[in-house]
Design a protein that fits this description.
Length: about 270
Amino acid sequence: MVQTLRPLTIGELLDRTFFYYRRHFVLFVGIAALPSAFLLAVQLAMVFVKPTGGSFVTPVLSLLMAFVYLVTTTLAHGATVVAVSQILLERETNVAEAFNSIRPRIGELIIISINVGVRVLLGTMLLIVPGILLALRYSLAIPVAVLEEAGISESLSRSTALTKGHRGRILLVYFLLFVLIIIGTMLWPFLTMLVAGLFSSAVRVGQSPVWMQVVLQFGSFVSESLLSPIMTIALTLVYYDERVRKEAFDLEHMMRQLDAAVLQPPHTA
């Protein structure tokens, strides 16, 4: 059956995002959980192994953690883009295949993420608004890099072109999902702090006990695995939506499917 791609309203885009997330829950959570598990291992190691070396070590470890987080989120982002694309094109996929698809281009995807992150950070430091505009401008850079096999500069410029004129729609998608994700992310720390408050005599001011740090890290792992795919699914759908609106990708896609059907050998009795 040919799946028709057509322009989506904000409501349809969000509805389709959660539909795919629910229907392929194990796939998306599995993709998010694998890199997050590595991040969790690093975080737990830092909880139990207290570094020595004074004030110099702390900023180095912070930079290391930031880099590990960047790498793990980029891997999950890229693999999720592949999975959504395969689902849209009605092809079977799994966690291993999604990661294998991006393996040859992991370095480029990480550089793109760093590039976008630095630009958005610098823009945010300039009264916040420029950072938001840059985030919207480059919001489709990873889908472009993964699905079109574009280079670093080409991915950034292509994302700029695809989002032009529709960044208000993307901002609304970001805002609605960001609120949902933030609420879900903050729920576990809130409950943990609430439980810790019952044992406040054991908690010193400004110093959390080891059990609390471990619980918080596991909660962060679960939240990241469950919630992070939602935004990536939505942005991948936005990518296809922009191609449909600006490049008649629906017709292109249907023609490819019809050509494939014609080239298939006829069934014999």
